[in-house]
């Protein structure tokens, strides 16, 4: 078994990816450049990754016969999406090397489990309480105070399943709005900055880390990522040490993104983990020697990890919903690298693409202030 766990998947091999979104799409493109073929497994037809993949299986995540055929056709299995049932990755891991291992997915796909794991390895997080049912919310809010944030423990992304409980918010209403079965209440962090760190770890335990980036959200969705982040060397060093520590404790093989808050006293608190490529790492395609997607492929296949050196300052801006209609103007800007995901419908809140502005001259400029 251990030999299998260290198996190198050489170029020419087939990488199986669970999930078919833009993260899978950009991974497949990086994989192709290194001579791999990608087989995606995703319940949706016409998923962004399917346009650039060698094979696509369109089937439910619990379709055993489809999973079996998928496993037989690939050399290694990974995922680009967290809400894959544990039973699916457990089943696949018995058939083919599955990286990261199923336990990593299990620990990070539920917020309470994730925060308890972080506490168990002495990583500081926001204060939180388990709100297993609506009746428990009142005492939890009393204990943590207002404002606080109620989050659904499972299936949250882009701020979905989250409610901020301010001074006059009715708790029953908050519970209904959150919409989940189990909640986690978090103390509201009045942070100075949000940053994230992406670390890669190979089957041999080698690691490579990207420097911290700074993230700004709009309507709870990532809007802009800036690199370098405006933090001190000490904060950056601490953030990187935390990310490495978590990856090692998880025995991660693949990528781990660690979202963090930096407080007024320069404390670094972990907000959440994502054991896969991350939106805040998209700048690496254009601004780093090795993109996060290539790094992901290298880690999962057991290849030497690439240089994470940054060769430009960069600002990455997401194109959400109708923003994508500005593509012509963006293409006319020589400092802009445009990336579109091939999604047909520009629904509000949907990530349609992103662009990276390299070496922005007047300090930090975001997409909003360009004319
Ligand atoms: P997801 O990214 O899965 O939607 P997050 O937990 O990362 O969920 O929350 C989304 C954003 O909401 C965060 O990036 C941050 O801006 C804000 N946020 C989340 N939790 C807190 C908190 N405890 N205090 C302050 N802001 C928060
Ligand atoms: Mg987040």
Automatic annotation (TrEMBL):
<dbReference type="InterPro" id="IPR003135">
    <property type="entry name" value="ATP-grasp_carboxylate-amine"/>
</dbReference>
<dbReference type="InterPro" id="IPR011054">
    <property type="entry name" value="Rudment_hybrid_motif"/>
</dbReference>
<protein>
    <recommendedName>
        <fullName>N5-carboxyaminoimidazole ribonucleotide synthase</fullName>
        <ecNumber>6.3.4.18</ecNumber>
    </recommendedName>
</protein>
<keyword id="KW-0436">Ligase</keyword>
<feature type="domain" description="ATP-grasp">
    <location>
        <begin position="115"/>
        <end position="301"/>
    </location>
</feature>
<feature type="binding site">
    <location>
        <position position="111"/>
    </location>
    <ligand>
        <name>ATP</name>
    </ligand>
</feature>
<keyword id="KW-0658">Purine biosynthesis</keyword>
<feature type="binding site">
    <location>
        <begin position="156"/>
        <end position="162"/>
    </location>
    <ligand>
        <name>ATP</name>
    </ligand>
</feature>
<comment type="function">
    <text>Catalyzes the ATP-dependent conversion of 5-aminoimidazole ribonucleotide (AIR) and HCO(3)- to N5-carboxyaminoimidazole ribonucleotide (N5-CAIR).</text>
</comment>
<feature type="binding site">
    <location>
        <position position="217"/>
    </location>
    <ligand>
        <name>ATP</name>
    </ligand>
</feature>
<comment type="function">
    <text>Catalyzes the ATP-dependent conversion of 5-aminoimidazole ribonucleotide (AIR) and HCO(3)(-) to N5-carboxyaminoimidazole ribonucleotide (N5-CAIR).</text>
</comment>
<dbReference type="InterPro" id="IPR013815">
    <property type="entry name" value="ATP_grasp_subdomain_1"/>
</dbReference>
<dbReference type="Pfam" id="PF02222">
    <property type="entry name" value="ATP-grasp"/>
</dbReference>
<dbReference type="InterPro" id="IPR005875">
    <property type="entry name" value="PurK"/>
</dbReference>
<keyword id="KW-0067">ATP-binding</keyword>
<feature type="region of interest" description="Disordered">
    <location>
        <begin position="351"/>
        <end position="371"/>
    </location>
</feature>
<comment type="pathway">
    <text>Purine metabolism; IMP biosynthesis via de novo pathway; 5-amino-1-(5-phospho-D-ribosyl)imidazole-4-carboxylate from 5-amino-1-(5-phospho-D-ribosyl)imidazole (N5-CAIR route): step 1/2.</text>
</comment>
<feature type="binding site">
    <location>
        <position position="194"/>
    </location>
    <ligand>
        <name>ATP</name>
    </ligand>
</feature>
<dbReference type="InterPro" id="IPR016185">
    <property type="entry name" value="PreATP-grasp_dom_sf"/>
</dbReference>
<feature type="binding site">
    <location>
        <begin position="186"/>
        <end position="189"/>
    </location>
    <ligand>
        <name>ATP</name>
    </ligand>
</feature>
<dbReference type="InterPro" id="IPR011761">
    <property type="entry name" value="ATP-grasp"/>
</dbReference>
<dbReference type="Pfam" id="PF17769">
    <property type="entry name" value="PurK_C"/>
</dbReference>
<comment type="subunit">
    <text>Homodimer.</text>
</comment>
<keyword id="KW-0547">Nucleotide-binding</keyword>
<dbReference type="GO" id="GO:0034028">
    <property type="term" value="F:5-(carboxyamino)imidazole ribonucleotide synthase activity"/>
</dbReference>
<feature type="binding site">
    <location>
        <position position="151"/>
    </location>
    <ligand>
        <name>ATP</name>
    </ligand>
</feature>
<feature type="binding site">
    <location>
        <begin position="271"/>
        <end position="272"/>
    </location>
    <ligand>
        <name>ATP</name>
    </ligand>
</feature>
<comment type="similarity">
    <text>Belongs to the PurK/PurT family.</text>
</comment>
<dbReference type="InterPro" id="IPR054350">
    <property type="entry name" value="PurT/PurK_preATP-grasp"/>
</dbReference>
<dbReference type="Pfam" id="PF22660">
    <property type="entry name" value="RS_preATP-grasp-like"/>
</dbReference>
<dbReference type="InterPro" id="IPR040686">
    <property type="entry name" value="PurK_C"/>
</dbReference>
């Amino acid at each position: 078994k251990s030999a299998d766990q260290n198996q190198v998947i050489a170029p020419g091999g087939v990488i199986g990816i669970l999930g078919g979104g833009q993260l899978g799409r950009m991974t497949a493109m990086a994989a192709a450049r290194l001579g791999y073929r990608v087989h995606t497994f995703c319940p949706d037809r016409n998923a962004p990754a399917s346009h650039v993949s060698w094979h696509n299986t369109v089937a439910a995540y619990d379709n055993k016969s489809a999973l079996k055929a998928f496993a037989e056709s690939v050399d290694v299995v990974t995922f680009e999406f967290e809400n894959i049932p544990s039973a699916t990755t457990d089943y696949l891991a018995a058939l083919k090397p599955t990286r990261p291992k199923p336990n990593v997915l299990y620990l990070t796909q539920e917020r309470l489990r994730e925060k308890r794991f972080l506490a168990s390895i002495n990583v500081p997080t926001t204060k939180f309480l388990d709100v297993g049912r609506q009746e428990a919310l009142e005492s939890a809010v009393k204990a943590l105070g207002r404002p606080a944030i109620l989050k659904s423990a499972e299936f949250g992304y882009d701020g979905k399943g989250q409610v901020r409980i301010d001074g006059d918010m009715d708790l029953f209403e908050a519970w209904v709005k959150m919409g989940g079965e189990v909640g986690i209440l978090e103390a509201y962090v009045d942070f100075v900055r949000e940053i994230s760190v992406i670390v890669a770890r190979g089957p041999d335990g080698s690691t490579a880390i990207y420097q911290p980036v700074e993230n700004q959200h709009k309507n709870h969705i990532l809007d802009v990522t800036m690199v370098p982040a405006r933090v001190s060397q000490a904060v950056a060093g601490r953030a990187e040490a935390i990310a490495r520590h978590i990856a090692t404790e998880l025995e991660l093989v693949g990528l781990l993104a660690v979202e963090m808050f930096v407080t007024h006293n320069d404390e670094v608190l972990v907000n959440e983990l994502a054991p896969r490529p991350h939106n805040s790492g998209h700048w690496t395609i254009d601004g780093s020697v090795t993109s996060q997607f290539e790094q992901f492929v290298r880690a999962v296949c057991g290849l030497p990890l690439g240089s994470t050196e940054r060769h430009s300052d960069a600002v990455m801006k997401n194109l959400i919903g109708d923003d994508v209609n500005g593509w012509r103007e963006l293409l006319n800007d020589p400092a802009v690298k445009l990336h579109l995901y091939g999604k047909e419908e520009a629904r509000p809140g949907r990530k349609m693409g992103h662009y990276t502005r390299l070496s922005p001259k007047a300090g930090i400029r975001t997409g909003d202030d360009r004319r």
